[in-house]
Design goal:
The chain is an alpha+beta fold and about 170 residues long. The protein has helices spanning about 5, 20-30, 30-40, 45-50, 110-120, 135-145; strands spanning about 15, 65-70, 80-85, 90-100, 125-130, 150-160, 160-170.
């Protein structure tokens, strides 16, 4: 899927472009603790993985990979993967939401998250879901601050690690 097909305002969230690969990969590699804690191994080709992975029954073409820059240019400060109408019609799933390590605790995640919810609502999402992994206390706190509520907790294997995923949801009209 492409942002240009949606007519989205790319001021803050912009579609991933091939030239963004190296800086995105460098940003993800700055936080090996996140990948160790979540997946049980250090970051590998994570930028590529974001582009080519998709949940069962979906293809990578069914999703958006978006980058957040506060003024629409400059360094990447956040990245997200969004899957429309997953797991059901009207629900959009945020499969990955990552704030650059040096940009944390400055309100970037909150601002980018609010921007994303507004963008999703404008593109037909009635509900947004996400599923932070157990131990991702910052992600859980941010999601709760953005109005997400716990739907369920499920045990999953992520990479080399067994973990609990906290399935959270919120309406976009709240």
């Amino acid at each position: 899927m492409s942002l240009s097909e949606t007519g989205a305002d790319p001021i803050r969230w912009a579609e991933f472009l091939p030239a963004d690969g190296p800086p995105l990969q460098a940003m993800l590699e700055q936080d090996p603790e996140f990948f160790e804690q979540t997946f049980g191994y250090p970051p590998g080709a994570e930028a590529q993985s974001l582009l080519y992975s998709a949940p069962e029954g979906r293809s990578p073409d069914d999703k958006y990979v978006l980058l957040w820059r506060p003024s629409g240019r400059g360094p990447i400060q956040a990245v997200t993967e969004v899957i429309p109408n997953y797991p059901d019609d009207g629900t959009w799933f945020v499969g990955f939401f990552f704030v650059e390590r040096g940009s944390r605790r400055q309100g970037i995640g909150r601002t980018a998250g609010r921007d994303l919810i507004t963008w999703l609502a404008g593109h037909g999402a009635g509900q947004v879901r996400c599923s932070p992994a157990g131990g991702q206390f910052g992600a859980l706190a941010l999601a709760k601050e953005l109005g997400f509520e716990n739907v369920q907790s499920v045990h999953r294997r992520l990479g080399n690690r067994d973990t609990v995923l906290h399935v959270l949801a919120r309406r976009t009209d709240d």
